[in-house]
Amino acid sequence: MSMDKLKYFLFGEPFRTSQEHHERLDKVRGLAIFASDPISSNAYATEAIMSVLIVLGTQALGLTWTIAIGIAVLVLIVVFSYIQTILHYPDGGGAYTVAKDNLGVTPSLLAAAALLTDYILTVSVSVSAGIRALTSAFPEFHDYRVVLALLAVIFLTWMNLRGVRESGTVFAIPTYAFVGGVLVVILIGLTRYYGLFGLPELTPEVHPIPPDHVVTSVAYVWLILRAFAAGCTALTGIEAISNGVGAFKRPESRNAAETMVVMGVIAMALFLGISFLATHLGLIPSHSDSILSQLARTITGTGFMYYWVQFFTMLILILAANTGFQDFPRLASFLAKDGFMPRWMTNRGDRLVFNGGIIVLAVIASLLIVVFRADEIAMLPLYALGVMLSFTLSQAGMVRLMGKIGKLKPGEPLKTLATTVHHESGWLWKRLVNILGSFVTGIVFIVLVATKFLEGAWVIALAIPLFVWLFRSIRRHYDHVAEALRTRYLDESSLLQLSDVVILPMGDVHRGTLRALQYAKRIATNVRAVCVITSEEQKERLLRRWKRFPKTTEGVELILLKYDYRDVLEPLIDYIETVNNEEFPHQLTSVVIPEFVTESYFTQILHNQTANLLRTRLRHYKDIVMIDIPIHISAYEIRESDLDDIGGQYTTEIVTDK
Q: What's the pLDDT band for 648 if we cut at 50, 70, 90?
C-alpha cells in the first residue's frame, strides 16, 4: 500500500478548499466540540472545592454549596462578556484578538500564552480525569492509566486530523449522553432528597472527620479562598467558542452566541446540582472514588444508571480534551498569521484542519501525562491559572471597546484593527458588566497565583512570560527575514552574479554521475568533476570507467584529490571553498550532485549518507548553490536513452553513493 493510499485510509480523502463551508459545524455539533470542556469540568469541579475544605473537617464541607453559587454567578458574568466578544469579533480569536485590538501587543501575547498553556492542560487533565473515571469503576486498570491516557490522546489526534465536522459527529453522542445521564441522576437525587412522588428518601451519610489542626481566622479565610480558586476549574473552556467562531455555519456570530448561552445553562445546571447534592448527602472526597461516582451510586445504586454515568463521564472527560484540539491550532494560526508563531501553523491539511497545531498539542500534552503519571489532581494546581488571566484581559479589552462605542454618534462607524463598530444602545451597562467581570476574574487570578503558587502554579507563572518571549523572538526573526528580502532600496548591481563554473562531486562513474554531467554541461562551459581518491585501485577504476563515455565526459575537467584519511568531506569542501573564494569571489558557485531515489524509505538508508553531510556543511555558505539531479532506482530496467533525458524533478535532497 502506497503512502498516499495509507493516508487516505486513515484520514479520508482530501477536501477541496471550496468545501470549507460544508465542513462547518451546526449548533448541535458545535456544542459537542466546544462545550465539552466546561460541561465535563463538572465531573471534578465540586470535588476540587471539597478536597480543600476537608482540611477543616466534614463540618466545613457544607460551605461547598455557598462557594458553588459564587462560582456560578462568576460563570454567568464571563458567559455574557464572551457573547459580546463573539458578536463584535465574528472572525474569532477570542481574548487574543480583543486584547490586540484594544489593549496592545503585549497584553494580547499574554492572553495568547495563557490560553495556549490552558489548552495544553485541558488535554492532559481531561484525558487523565477520564481514565480516572474508568479506573474508579474498574480498579484493575489503575496500573495501566498512563498507557490508556496516551492511547486516548492518539485517538483524539486521529479524529481531529480527519476533520472538524467528522469529529463533531463522533463526539456528540458521548457529550449529550453524559449531560442526560447526570441530569437524570440529579433529578432523581433531588426528588428523593425532598421525598417527592413517593420515592424512598435519601438519608445523608455521617462520617465525621475532625479538622487536621486548629486554624486561625486568617488561615480560615485563606482556605476558603483556596477552595473558591479550586472550584474555578468549572470556568475552563468557556472561552472556547469565542476562539472558534469561524467553525460555525453562517450566520457564524449568531450560531456561536446561541451555543454559548446553551453551554452556560447546561454547565451551571450540572455544577449546581452536583454541588447541592454532594453537600447535603454528606459525601466525602476520596482519591480512589470520585464525588460524581459516589453521587450516582448513592442515588441510583450500582445498576445500569451508575455504569451509564461512569462510562459517559469517562468518555466526555476524554473528549473534553477535544476543546483543546479545536482551539489550540486555531489560536496558533492567528498568532502565526501575525508572525508570532511558525508560519506553517497557518497551513491547513487535506481535511481543512490545522495539522501542525494538532500534532504539536498532542506531543506536549502526552509529555505532561507521562510526567504527572496521568494524575489530574496533581495537574489541577496548574490548571485554570491561564484561563483566568485570559478572562481578565479579554473583559478589560471589551471595557475599552465599549468605551469607544459609547463615544460614537448614532450611525457613525469606527474602524479598529480587527472590526468595525457602531454606536450601541445599552453600551454603558454592558461596559459595567465587563468591568465587574474583569475585576472579579482578576481577583480570582491573584487568588489562584497566591494559593497555588507553591503547589505548582509557579510553573505556569513562569511559562506564560517564556511563551511571550518566544512569540517576540519568532516575530523578530520574521522581521529580520523580511528586511533581508526587501527590494525597496535594492541596487541590482549589488546582486551576486552566477559564475560560469559547475562542480560535480562524485564517488564513481555511473548512470547518476553521467546524467548529472549532461545537465552540468547545459548550464556552464566550465564543468569540473571532483573525486576524492583514497587508493590507487580506486583511481585506476575511475579513470577506466571515465574513458568509456567520451561523449559525455568531453570538455569536463576531472579533478582527482588524493587523500590519506577516511573523511572524504574535508578535501572536497576545501576544494569547493577554494574555487568559490579565490577563483570566483563575490559570485555564485554551482554544485551539482546526482541523487539516488530508491523504491522505499527503508532502502534509502542502506546507502552512504555522505551527501547528506555535504549538504549540511554547504548550506551555510551564502554564495554556493546546490542542484540535485535525481535518478530513480526502480524494478524495471533503465534504458540507455535515459541518459539523454536531463529533465525531470529537481529537489533539495542530496544523496550520493560512494
A: very low
- Contact between 347 and 356 (Cβ < 8 Å): yes
pTM of the predicted structure, to 2 decimals: 0.80
For 581-593, b/e burial (b = at least 16 CB within 10 A) is eeebeeebbbbbb
At 33, is the pLDDT very low, low, confident or very high (cuts 50, 70, 90)? confident
pLDDT over 70 at 318, yes or no: yes
Superfamily of domain 497-644: HUPs (3.40.50.620)
**Cα–Cα separations (whole angstroms), residue 596 to 228, 372, 608, 646:** 64, 46, 11, 15
Per-domain residue ranges of the chain: 17-480, 497-644
Q: Which pLDDT band holds residue 651 (cuts at 50, 70, 90)?
A: very low
Question: Which contiguous run of DSSP H or E holds residue 179?
Answer: helix 164-193
- Going by C-alpha positions, the residue among 265, 247, 269, 264 that lies closest to residue 256 is 247
Residue with cell 456560578: 72
From the list 324, 315, 475, 326, the residue with the least C-alpha distance to 386 is 324
- H helices of 486-563, where? 511-523, 536-546, 550-553
Q: Which region among 40-44, 478-482, 553-557, 636-640 has the lowest average model confidence (pLDDT)?
A: 636-640
Q: Return the pLDDT at 122.
A: 87
Distance CA 542, CA 557 (A): 14
Name residues whose C-beta falls within 8 Å of residue 573's C-beta, 6 or more positions apart in sequence: 614, 617, 618
Residue 655 pLDDT greater than 50, yes or no: no
Query: In terms of DSSP bridges, do strands 414-415 and 420-421 run parallel, antiparallel, or are they unpaired?
Result: antiparallel
| Cα→Cα distances 79→240, 262, 264, 330, 381, Å | 11, 10, 7, 20, 23
Beta-carbon contacts of residue 227 (< 8 Å; ≥ 6 apart): 49, 52, 53, 63, 64, 67
CA–CA separation, 503 and 447 (whole Å): 67
Q: What is the pLDDT of residues 406-416, one digit of tens each?
A: 888 888 888 87
503 phi/psi in degrees, rounded to 5: -105, 130
Using 50, 70 and 90 to split pLDDT, how confident is the model at 608? Answer: low
Residue 429 confidence (pLDDT): 92
Query: Which three-class secondary structure state does DSSP give residue 249?
Result: coil
Q: Sorting pLDDT into bands at 50, 70 and 90, what band is 211?
A: low
Query: Does 145 score more than 60 pLDDT?
Result: yes
**Residues near 154 by beta carbon (within 8 Å), at least 6 away in sequence:** 362
What pLDDT score was predicted for residue 206?
Answer: 62
SS3 372: coil
Distance of CA 240 to the CA centre of its chain: 14
- State the pLDDT confidence band at 251, using cuts at 50, 70 and 90: confident
Do 239 and 95 form a contact (C-beta atoms < 8 A)? yes
What is the fold of 17-480?
Answer: Amino acid/polyamine transporter I (1.20.1740)
Q: Phi and psi of 533, rounded to 5°? A: -100, 125
Q: Give the cell for residue 385.
A: 491559572
C-alpha cell at 5: 493510499
Cα Rg of the chain, angstroms: 32
The span from the CA of 464 to the CA of 470, in Å, is 10
Grid cell, residue 169, equals 459527529
